[in-house]
Design goal:
Layout (H helix, E strand, L loop, with lengths): L6 H27 L24 H5 L7 H15 L9 H22 L1 H21 L16 H8 L8 E8 L1 H6 L1 E13 L2 E13 L7 E5 L13 E8 L5 E4 L2 E4 L3 E2 L9 E7 L4 E8 L11 E7 L8 E7 L4 E4 L2 E4 L1 E4 L7 E2 L16 E2 L3 E8 L2 E6 L7 E5 L1 E2 L2 E2 L1 E3 L5 E4 L8 E4 L8 E5 L4 E8 L2 E6 L9 E5 L3 E4 L11 H4 L5 H13 L2 E8 L4 E3 L5 E7 L17 E7 L9 H23 L1 H4 L30 H11 L2 H14 L5 H16 L3 H14 L4 H13 L4 H17 L3 H16 L6 H13 L3 H13 L7 H18 L3 H14 L4 H13 L3 H14 L4 H15 L4 H8 L14 E4 L7 H9 L9 E4 L7 H14 L2 E4 L19 H15 L6 E4 L2 E5 L35 H9 L10 E5 L25 H8 L4 E3 L7 E5 L2 E5 L15 E5 L4 E6 L11 H4 L8
Parallel strand pairs: 1-5, 7-12, 8-12, 11-31, 35-36, 36-37, 39-40, 40-41, 41-43
Antiparallel strand pairs: 2-3, 4-5, 6-7, 9-10, 10-34, 11-12, 13-30, 14-24, 15-18, 15-23, 16-17, 18-19, 19-20, 21-22, 24-27, 25-26, 27-28, 28-29, 31-33, 32-33, 33-34, 35-44, 38-39, 42-43, 44-45
Pfam family, one: DnaJ
Protein name: J domain-containing protein
InterPro entries: DnaJ_domain, J_dom_sf, Metallo-depent_PP-like, Pantetheine_PDE, TPR-like_helical_dom_sf, TPR_rpt
């Protein structure tokens, strides 16, 4: 023990933990950028491809980074070999040849080490451990003399690669973008004229450079486009180096990883007067925070109060925060801007000089002697039917009154959109809103426009408006520029101060109060509030699209640093709209805030959050609950009994256990002797005594309760607890074991089972003679008698009695497996799963342990998780009948769609049920093949903001490997509101790198389902808005699709990497089709869009020149299923032929991305299949622009130039 706690061992443990963390982070990073990097636990025991030297930096030898992919390793080796290979040294002197030969040997060693994944992981681990050890010990890491690929003469490579061309130049370009780009992330696109070499001539062409900026990217961000600049006839193409920085923001500034508000908020002149406070805090465009809660400074009259807020998760990155301060006095206040009013124009009464005006809205009201002049503009105050109450803006006539908007056959007053009238709403306490001379917020202020003034709009630039003051409608500069949405202004300091200071105000108070006030003054007047989210962002059906998220500070530690005030409960909500994060949408964002935030204050604060209601003042009852003089009496005049038990339960909840014990004693006096009610009261009092440490009294009460209710497990558990807590002896421990065993026999609850396990261990140490085999035998006998509670108790006792030996792991695995089976018989699935997992951990190579786990998972309704476990057991022992039966049961159960994940998918059916009709578009794409580089680039180039309210259908063949499928779907999910997906053929491949992970294709299918559920990808039907449904149809090809030869082809298999546990020709397609049947009878109405990967009809085009292609392309059962749900449009894939045509009332659409040599454009479009109103088939650009070929006939194209 002393050796374990020595500094030497602690340093070794610290080194091992640090190396493990660093290696894990590196592996995760490599998996993101390299699809061939699949780390396995067996890598560290695999034979090395080369006996490397850990003191040589092989990455430096090749001149690559440590995160280099296998392709980069190969490229670096090839590039350097062109210079240093012995075949390239002819003509050199012997000394130079030897130098180059030595360098090439280092290159070969580095290439051999880094190309083999297991060897590379072992090399990385050894170098990392050497580095960490040197860091902790304070030494320098040893190195050897080596070649550095970074220092290779670039001229040598260029001369060997392209001898006729000189080197290009680096062109530095500075790019300034909004801070929102670094906060939200996204793509910055720069169009630049590029000189391009075409057939020996130089032409000017416009080229787009797409720069992906991740959220929280540090500044300046440098992006290189190597040899992507201007091309030249006499040298290589230039390299463009873009340096991105953010321009100064009006509201916040960067403080990596945080965002910090530039201005302090104001708590008012005296923050001690209000018990509650609320405030609005702007952030970057597209985010607005509103918070409220209890005032920590209430009744605190000391000066200098300051609140320091941190809203976690709302900084530049996920680990950052939005930080802002609020101070007492001064500070900044939000001044409201302007409000638009409808304006009408008088177009009637031209022959009479105007139209008639009355002093009331009834036609019988008194007429004014004057008429409002023809051509006058009037502001709408109230409009009811065809009666308008107006306020005149121009010309002559009564200033206000009621007029008719129309008479039979003629209009008198019409809307005038050309005349925009605004009313000044804010700035009353400041004398109005600020007027500027120019349309820049930094331009000179020329005065203030009085609150209540009316102005005419002349021009608008973003949130700034140029106005003209309407005559006799206000005071201020006759023209100028103002902010429509308002702005933050410095609150004027008060000219008067309170008479005397804090010292005078405390002069005449009692000494204890004065001392307390002085202590609080010394502690400071600073309060830090940390908001953390307690809900996920909730999407709102607004225009523009937005989400709302709620925060609280209830998880903040109750202990505050010395010198600070303890915060009180506070809550906040954040509204976010990514579509309004750009400058061009600033006006929409301000209008949205002006309309939505007031509603938010009146609803969410008081109605939606129970926690928020708790901080609001509680209403008082306006009448006595009981009539005066009658409380405490029954209707017949008898005294009403005192509710001792209820009072005692309340005392327990408060933690007043002694008082609760007294109240339970009073209740026992009123309870019938020997009744079950008395047993319950004795048990409750035993709990109180046990928590107070009075174990002897607790034991007496618990035993009395067991005598009254011998088949109630709780008092038996209390007897066991109290006996075990008494001074230890063989008698008390045996009594505890017997009591816990009895409790477990009656009800095998987790707490009593664990307690029994611990007490048996203590009894064994005291010299108990029973063995694990004895208890196991007793458990087996109990199982045979169907006494499963007794069996659980016996197996628990046996587990505690296992002696350390070579066979201990096998004993543990068998005992935990047996107890899991007993729990399964009692249908206690959580306990059964936990025990089975312990059995697998004890001996992972035992098929029976895996079968027990599979049985528990299957019984709990988790067939999709049980299937891989059974498959693993079958792989270890192909003759194990229990595992094979479990495998088949999982397949049958999964078709019923009653597993936990399947039920959760059904619950998503109602997610968009009430989304307004016509509020979303639906796009389709198929055969994405994300593992093809150009297709990954296509996904990245989809606009990240313009499709945030839309839905995408992905009709299979996302990628070959699980890792790439998840990457591709995750990227598409970030571009669209919802993504619907069904697996294709390539997803079912189990390539060599995945064979150890997935036993067969169905295991991989369930893994993809689980990943889709975690990412929010839809694989089940759901409405996307009112009366619009998207229905995925799982499918596999059927050889009967080939009418000429409807039989399986035993010589050809287009998907040889698929591994099926069932017949691939007769059962696989039935398995997928049966999975759809549970969804075919759902209540669809309106427009239904279906999609599958395989072709549903034989008359749809596919490549007939490929040998037996018809056997591997479609399944006619899909057609029957889509007709059953009354589909209006069906998206499919598989054929790699672009197509769109209406057949028998259904539009069939295929928009494949395909492989690089199948492309018809550099950036293929999406297919719009629902345009918010109707189904359609329109090619739509990935930048949200319609392509000019809207007819189905024009869309019906084929690849390779074939018709």
């Amino acid at each position: 023990e002393k050796f374990k706690n020595s500094s030497f061992m602690q340093q070794g443990q610290q080194i091992d933990e640090t190396v493990k963390t660093m290696m894990s982070q590196k592996s995760q990073e490599l998996m993101r950028c390299c699809c061939t990097w699949l780390p396995q636990d067996s890598d560290f025991t695999a034979p090395k491809s080369f006996k490397y030297d850990k003191l040589i930096d092989y990455y430096g030898v090749l001149g690559i980074q440590e995160m280099a992919t296998q392709a980069e390793v190969k490229g670096a080796y090839k590039r350097l070999s062109l210079v240093y290979h012995p075949d390239k040294t002819s003509g050199m002197d012997d000394e130079k040849k030897e130098e180059y030969a030595a360098i090439f040997i280092q290159l070969k060693n580095a290439y051999t080490t880094l190309l083999d994944n297991p060897t590379r992981r072992q090399y990385d681990h050894d170098r990392c451990k050497e580095f960490v050890t040197c860091q902790i010990m304070g030494d320098r890491m040893k190195t050897r003399d080596q070649f550095w690929g970074f220092e290779m003469n670039e001229a040598k490579y260029e001369a060997s690669a392209q001898k006729d061309l000189g080197p290009g130049i680096d062109v530095d370009l500075e790019l300034v973008c909004p801070l929102e780009r670094f906060v939200y992330g996204g793509q910055e696109t720069v169009w630049r004229n590029r000189k391009t070499r075409v057939k020996g001539e130089i032409e000017d062409r416009m080229k787009a450079y797409h720069i992906d900026v991740a959220p929280g990217t540090p500044e300046p961000f440098v992006k290189k486009f190597v040899k992507k600049g201007d091309e030249h006839l006499d040298r290589l193409a230039d390299t463009l180096i873009f340096t991105l920085t953010s321009k100064p923001h009006d509201t916040v500034e960067r403080a990596d990883p945080d965002l910090r508000c530039l201005r302090d908020c104001s708590l008012g002149e005296d923050a001690s007067l209000e018990p509650y406070l609320s405030m609005e805090v702007p952030s970057v465009l597209g985010r607005h925070l509103v918070f409220w809660g209890r005032n920590p400074f209430f009744k605190n009259r000391l000066p200098g109060k300051e609140l320091r807020f941190a809203v976690w998760g709302q900084g530049l990155r996920g680990d950052g925060a939005l930080r802002f301060n609020a101070k007492e006095g001064g500070g900044y206040v939000h001044v409201e801007g302007l409000k638009a009013h409808p304006v009408h124009k008088v177009v009637g009464g031209e022959d009479k000089g105007g139209i008639l005006v009355r002093d009331g809205k009834d036609t019988s009201a008194k007429k004014y002697p004057d008429r409002v002049k023809f051509g006058a503009f009037v502001r709408e105050v109230e409009l009811e039917g065809e009666r308008l109450f107006y306020d005149r803006l121009t010309d002559t006539g009564p200033q206000q009154g009621w007029v008719a908007t129309a008479i039979p056959g003629k209009e008198l007053v019409v809307p005038a959109p050309e005349y925009v009238c605004w009313e000044v709403m804010g700035g009353k306490e400041l004398g109005g809103i600020i007027v500027r001379a120019g349309k820049d917020t930094s331009s000179e202020q020329v005065g203030r426009l009085e609150t209540g003034s009316f102005v005419k709009q002349l021009a608008v630039d973003g949130d700034l408006m140029q106005y003209e003051l309407i005559e006799n409608k206000g005071q201020g500069p006759p023209t100028g520029w103002v902010l429509i949405g308002g702005e933050e202004e410095k609150k004027p300091e008060s000219d008067t101060t309170e008479a005397g200071g804090a010292e005078e105000s405390l002069a005449n108070v009692p000494e204890p109060i004065r001392r307390r006030a002085e202590q609080r003054a010394e502690a400071g007047q600073i309060c830090e509030v940390d908001f953390s989210p307690f809900t996920d962002p909730l999407g709102l059906f607004t225009n523009p699209g937005s989400s709302i998220q709620f925060f609280h500070n209830l998880s903040q530690p109750s202990q505050v640093p010395s010198g600070q005030i303890k915060p009180r409960p506070m809550f906040a909500c954040l509204i976010t709209s990514m579509s309004c994060s750009s400058e061009e949408n600033k006006a929409d964002w301000n209008n949205f805030k002006a309309s939505f935030v007031p509603v938010l204050k009146e609803t969410c604060f008081k109605m939606f959050l129970r926690a928020a209601r708790n901080v609001l003042p509680r209403p008082l009852c306006n009448a006595p609950v009981f009539p005066e003089g009658e409380y405490g009496q029954e209707s017949d005049g008898a005294s009403r009994p005192v509710p001792w038990e209820r009072l005692a339960d309340s005392a327990v909840m408060r933690g007043d256990l002694w008082y609760a014990a007294v109240l339970y004693s009073n209740a026992l006096q009123d309870a019938p002797e020997g009744s079950e009610a008395a047993a319950v009261l004795l048990s409750k009092r035993a709990d109180c005594y046990a928590n107070l440490g009075e174990n002897g009294a607790s034991l007496v009460d618990a035993k009395a309760a067991t005598e009254l209710m011998p088949k109630w497990e709780k008092p038996w558990g209390q007897v066991g607890y109290a006996s075990a807590a008494l001074p230890e002896s063989a008698e008390t421990l045996q009594e505890s074991v017997d009591a816990y065993s009895r409790a477990v026999e009656l009800q095998p609850q987790g707490g009593d089972v664990e307690a029994l396990h611990g007490v048996v261990g203590r009894l064994m140490a005291a010299g108990d003679a029973k063995t694990a085999d004895d208890e196991k035998k007793r458990g087996n006998e109990a199982v045979a008698k169907a006494e499963f509670g007794v069996a659980v108790a016996a197996y628990t006792s046996a587990v505690s009695r296992v002696q350390p030996s070579e066979e201990a792991s096998l004993q543990y695995a068998l005992l935990f497996g047996n107890r899991s089976a007993a729990f399964a018989q009692l249908k206690m699935w959580d306990s059964a799963i936990a025990d089975a997992q312990k059995g697998v951990e004890a001996k992972n190579d035992l098929p029976k342990a895996h079968a027990r786990l599979g049985t528990a998972l299957l019984g709990s309704g988790q067939c999709e998780k049980a299937y891989p476990v059974f498959a693993h057991a079958v792989k270890m022992d192909g003759t194990f009948d229990l595992a094979r039966e479990g495998l088949n049961s999982c397949l049958v159960e999964s078709l019923r769609m009653m597993s936990w994940p399947a039920k959760a998918r059904k619950n998503r059916f109602n997610m968009d049920m009430w989304r307004p009709k016509g509020s979303t578009r639906v796009f389709g794409v198929a055969d994405v093949h994300f593992d093809v580089r150009c297709n990954e680039e296509w996904v990245h180039n989809i606009d990240g903001l313009k499709f945030q309210d839309d839905v995408l259908i992905v009709a299979g063949d996302m990628a070959d490997t699980f890792h790439q499928v998840c990457r591709g779907l995750g990227m598409l999910k970030s571009k669209f509101r919802r993504v619907f997906y069904t697996p294709g053929c390539h997803e079912m491949w189990v390539p060599v790198p995945e064979m150890t992970t997935y036993q067969d294709s169905i295991v991989k299918l369930y893994a993809i389902f689980e990943a889709c559920d975690a990412m929010g990808i839809d694989i089940a039907p759901a409405p996307v808005c009112q009366e619009t449904y998207v229905v995925p149809l799982f499918s596999w090809y059927n050889c009967v699709f080939d009418e000429k030869d409807p039989f399986p082809d035993t010589d050809v298999d287009q998907n040889p990497f698929c591994k099926w546990p069932i017949d691939k020709d007769e059962q696989v397609w039935k398995f997928f089709s049966t999975m759809n049947e549970q969804y075919l009878n759902l209540p669809y109405h309106g427009t239904v869009l279906t999609f599958s990967h395989n072709l549903p009809r034989r008359d749809l085009p596919f490549w007939t020149h490929i040998y037996h292609q018809a056997k591997f392309i479609g399944c006619t059962e899909i057609e029957d299923q889509l007709r059953k749900v009354n589909s209006k449009c069906h998206v499919y894939g598989r054929s790699h032929r672009r197509f769109g045509r209406e057949i028998d009332g259904v539009i069939y659409v295929n928009m494949p991305l395909g492989k690089e040599d199948e492309r018809m454009e550099d950036f293929p479009p999406l297919m719009l299949v629902h345009d918010r109103e109707n189904v359609c088939a329109k090619e739509w650009g990935i930048n949200d622009e319609e392509i000019a070929n809207p007819t189905l006939a024009q869309i019906e194209k084929t690849h390779y130039g074939m018709k």
